[in-house]
Amino acid sequence: MEAPRSAYMKSLLLRRHNGLIKIITGIRRCGKSYFLFKLFRDVLLSEGVPTDHIIALQLDDIRNRKYRNPEACYEYVLSRVKEEGPYYVLLDEVQMMDHFEEVMNSFLHVPSLDVYVTGSNSKFLSSDVVTEFRGRGDEIRMYPLSFAEFHELSNQPFDECWQKYERYGGLPGLLSMKDERQKEEYLSGLFRNVYLNDVVERQKVRNRDLLDDVVNILASSIGTFTTPAKIANTYGSIKHISTSNKTVSDYIGYLEDAFLIEPAVRYDIKGRRYIGANKKYYFVDTGLRNVRLQFRQMEPTHLMENVIFNELRMRGWHVDVGNINAYTSHGGTETKRSTLEVDFIAGRGNQKVYIQSAYRMDDEEKAMQEKRPLLEIRDSFEKIIVVRDSVLPWRDENGILIMGLQDFLEKWDREK
User: Fold this and answer.
1) CATH topology (fold) of 6-141
2) Which of 88, 161, 199, 221 stands 20 to 30 A from 138 (CA)?
3) What are the domain boundaries of the chain?
4) Tell me: the pLDDT tens digits for 369-411?
């Protein structure tokens, strides 16, 4: 089964010959190497690019060991340039080359070269990797399979597919696995022996036990606000060992830096400002989150919220959590009634949308609870409530769009 990764391909093709190094980042096993060396290469060949104009090196292959030397790699690539370009340079596991940044930046001085790189160890799996290229890098962030991609490849009814996706996530390697135990062992091994080892190696983490506990506490609290201080207190109450807020904050930052989690910051909608230190953290893949908790705490509301957050990020939206104060007026004086929350404020360019994730909205009281925060917002940007049930999209008398989860995941924003 082959995932075409169409959205990423469109993004990559738009960046061709832009004078920058195209850097494909993301967690291990999300499909970066396959995307670049199989799917992108196939597109180039289908467009008539000669095979000798595609210079591909996978540096983790023992046959290419000598090209891990910076000078050897640079000289080899230049030796392949025999005529006018363009030439496409595809380099995988580029972090295995010492001083790879200097080599990549040197390629930019050769007009006929268009350079694409991936990497997946602790040095390269960093949200600040673009700075290594001195402002000459153009990052494409790759995620595990979206639900739409997963559904298309699984060829199963929506409900059956959703149950698998929310439980095991969307890492492409799972598609060939039929046995649940095999999937659980695969996810557990990746998290323990690959992802966290990368963090420990890169950041020289001394307290691995604390790192494990921070991961587990974050996994238990998706969909709820937290702070390093709260996590430190939770850790202290469980282990009876004190730790500093700064250490916990550093460890959370390491997990963000490795693309395992992403924060959503609280934003005051009326005041138009970020408020407080409270954040919600979502896992880049629900399967990775679930395996950390041994598939306990499988709250469908929180898992659905996590998937919606990831889908928005995959589509290039910046995502915050909305905070809005509701007031009543008595004799001309406004009195604060309550503080309401909008699950997500998503922004992209000049677009904005407010989204509520409502697993069930099967009675009038629940419907009003979900709508109330949206009704307090006085601007004209789109407001959406996503429900788990399969319902035809419709707008209520206030213009709020109510739609089913399947339509949101597979149809909404696809044409924008």
Assistant:
1) Rossmann fold (3.40.50)
2) 199
3) 6-141
4) 999 999 999 999 999 999 999 999 999 999 999 999 999 999 9
